[in-house]
Specification:
Layout: H1 2-48, H2 68-76, H3 79-110, H4 116-126, H5 135-144, H6 152-162, H7 169-176, H8 180-188, H9 193-201, H10 206-222, H11 225-231, H12 240-245, H13 253-289
Helix pairs in contact: 1-13, 2-13, 3-6, 3-7, 3-10, 6-11, 7-13, 8-9, 10-13
Length: 293
Amino acid sequence: MKNNQKKLKRKSMGAKAKRRLSNTIIYIILVIMTVVWLFPFVGIVLESFKTETKMQTGYLFPREFGFTHYERLFKETDFLLWFKNTAIMGIATAFLQTFFILSMSYTLSRLRFKGRKFLMNFMLILGMFPGFLTMILIYKVFADFGLIMEMAPLGLIIVYCASSGMGYYVSKGFFDTIPKSLDEAARVDGATRWQVFYKVIMPLSKPIVIYTILMGFMAPWGDFMLASYLIHENSEGMSVAVGMFEWLSATNLNTNYTMFCAAGVIVAIPVVTVFLLLQKYYVEGVTGGAVKG
């Protein structure tokens, strides 16, 4: 008996040692991956505090810290205007996209009507085509309506929201997990479809609502292709992505590179802040919407 107990103890100690070793290796790998992933961001932050303007200085850590480039941003450029334009587009897109996506998702999740499956398949196939295929047509239509140049932010909001209903997949999957008996009980009590959606389903769908808002808010901050196509060189309608890209031309790179890094730090602040505050709901929304309905 004693020998058996000793053998069991040795086996358990060996299993614990193996588990600790494997966990240690995993943690080391994760730390290395984190350092590699964060290195470019740390480099941009350090570059923004350098007093030099050149791109290649031969060292990473600033020899002298300063806010020179942050001051240049606000005094010598239209960065504040670009930031305001992008923030307006982000907020408007977030709320409009959320309304359209959740409305479409709820409709496809709860209602059964003729052509429903065809509509879902059609939107799925249509979403496979890259959006830039329609850029020439979008520019022509928006130019006729005066929604380019200084009015480009309004035009971009329309583009971002116009086809947002086709991104119903994750939200529909989340709504499919909510029991339909709640809808039926509310309908028996005399609630309309809108009241069921707004007063019953939405309070239970906080994760997917916040996930959709977050995705809509982040889209305008990183869009460059379509924004540059509608804005061109008009500073009044520029977003931060288009405006900052103007500093990276061959003639301006050495004089504007560190200022570009400073602008990148400021642009990242609202997106990172919103994501960190809402990351819990982001994860819940993604995992909840991954359920097949």
